[in-house]
Each structure stands twice: as structure tokens, then as C-alpha cells.
């Protein structure tokens, strides 16, 4: 699948921004600057960016508790994200969602989710909306290997298959569902094979290779836009940090970590594009510097932003419908 020079530059910029963003959070959380739980995406950048490279602003994604990378790949504002994680009023959800519940509907990011397996039903809802409206919008549904065992995931796969919904299911198999390897917790090691039982094409790919993800996602998303229904992608990847910040990582050994870091998706991308003379080292180095500056500016913005006030406590609790006193079904049936 062909990819333009401009798209290559975009892809590397997005991956580098995710890495710098997550590394900064790792440092700031250890310094006590960030409240709540934080789950970092570093190491998995090729998956989010390889998928979202084919999506526009009108398309949707559903995310997980490890959602920062998905947000950045979909174009959510870095400063608003950082402020949200800091719990500040300038955050994308006014500081009320935190790391696990960042959302930006205007960018098609339907929300990170603290519920394991919470994304597939939401993705089916977005897919059904596109189907009923007759648009060519596609939803990419990200979830982990742990969620591959959840009933909500199977229900989502079944619904998408029955209704031929424009949904691409992306299982990010990072080797551990929290602290448990799928070698222990998944009865069939080929997670992608499960989707074939729901009548949809599926594939397992190297999730540490941006180009493998880009090609598989491009075919799946194009298929969905043509109205041919869902596809399942198992992206085999690896997270560099623990399940959450503060995780002791006693369930992993150093040799495993060294093995996967030697396959780092950003380094592999750099090697490929430089060797094939698609991009220059100077261009990539410049992106690295710009990404560091952007993340530093986002962190500074978050640190200087105000906290929500007591008056904000009870706002955004209830939905305000356009027709006062009418529930949505009453408005429709008038």
C-alpha cells in the first residue's frame, strides 16, 4: 500500500509525540504532580498511528484505559490532554475525567474507558449510526488482549457481523492483561481466529511495525467504507512501562524487556525510511526536537492552569436537551 512522503512525516511526528508525552507523564507521576491512575502507551505507538493514519475527523475511535496514544493519533489537542491528566479546568473534559476518561467528540475520539471491554458496544453504536445515516464513516475499536475474553467484546463482534457495521476491531495484544500473560489466560493463542467465528475476516500482524499496521488497517478501513462490514486485527505489540504507574513489574524479566526494546517501533521506522531514502535523518531529528518542545509546552500549560472550582462540581452531570421539558423520544414523536 502506497504512502506519501507527507504522510510518513505525519506518522513519525505522531509516534514521537506519543512517546515524549508518555515519558513525560512517567516522570511527572513519579514526582507526585499527577492525581489518580495513569496507564502509559509507550511502545505501542505504531498501532494507534498506523490505524488512525486512515481515519478523518468524521471517523470515530473507541479507546481503553491506556488511551493517550489513541487520543494523540486521532488529533486531540496535546495541551488539553495534559491539563486533563493534571486534573485542571482547561482539560479536554474540564479536569473531571483524568487519564482514563479523556474524550473529544469533535475529533471523533469517543472516550478512553476504565471498563475492560467497554469499547466494542460503543463502537457498534457509532457504526450503526453511520449505517443508518448512509455515511461512509468508520469506527476503529481499540481493546487489549484482556478484553478479548470479555462478553461485551463477543457481543460487539456478533452485532457488527450481523449488521455489517463499518467497524474495525483492533486488539492490541501487548503480552499482558494487567499482569497476566495470554499464554495463561487465553485458551486459543490465536486471538484473531476468534473473529472468524463471527464471519468476519481477521489477521494477526506485527504491531511493532508501523508499515504492517498501516497496510492491514488500510485494507480493513477501505472495506468498511465500501459497506462490506467489520474486520478484526490482532496487533501483537508490547508496552514498555507497567500496567499502571507504580506497577512493580515483578511478572516480567529484564531479558524480555530488552528483546522488545530492540524492536522499538520508532527506531524501526527511522531505519526503514532512511535506508529507502524516503526521509532524511535531519528531518526526523527535527521532528524529535519539535516533539520535545511541544510536550514541554503542554506540561507547562497544565501546570499553570487552574483547578476546577467548587461551583464546577455539579455541572456536566445532566444532559440539557434542546426542547425544554421534553425527552428525546418525545421530541422525535411530536
List the defining traits of the structure above.
Rossmann fold, disordered C terminus, 334 residues, five-stranded parallel β-sheet, alpha/beta, 13 helices, globular
In a nutshell, what does this entry contain?
By secondary structure, the protein is of the alpha/beta class. The protein has 13 helices and five strands.
What pattern of helices and strands is seen along the backbone? HHEHHHEHEHHEHEHHHH
Any idea what the CATH superfamily is called? Thiamin diphosphate (ThDP)-binding fold, Pyr/PP domains
CATH class: Alpha Beta
The main pleated sheet reads as: 5 strands, parallel
Beta-strand fraction estimate: 5-15%
Number of domains: 1
Biggest sheet strand order reads: 1-2-3-5-4
Average predicted confidence as pLDDT = 93
**What structural class do the secondary elements suggest?**
alpha/beta
Give the proportion of residues in helices.
Answer: 40-55%
Total helices: the number is 13
Q: The CATH topology is what?
A: Rossmann fold
CATH architecture descriptor name: 3-Layer(aba) Sandwich
The radius of gyration over CA amounts to 20 Å
Query: What is the 3D form?
Result: globular
Low-confidence stretches: 329-334
Number of strands: 5
- Cα(first) to Cα(last) distance is 50 Å
Structure notes:
This protein has 334 residues and is an alpha/beta fold. It contains 13 helices and 5 strands. The protein has one domain: Rossmann fold (3-Layer(aba) Sandwich), CATH 3.40.50.970. Strands 1-2-3-5-4 form a 5-stranded parallel sheet, with helices on both faces. Helix 1 (5-30) packs antiparallel against helix 3 (68-74) and helix 1 (5-30) packs across helix 12 (281-304). The protein is globular, with a radius of gyration of 20 Å.
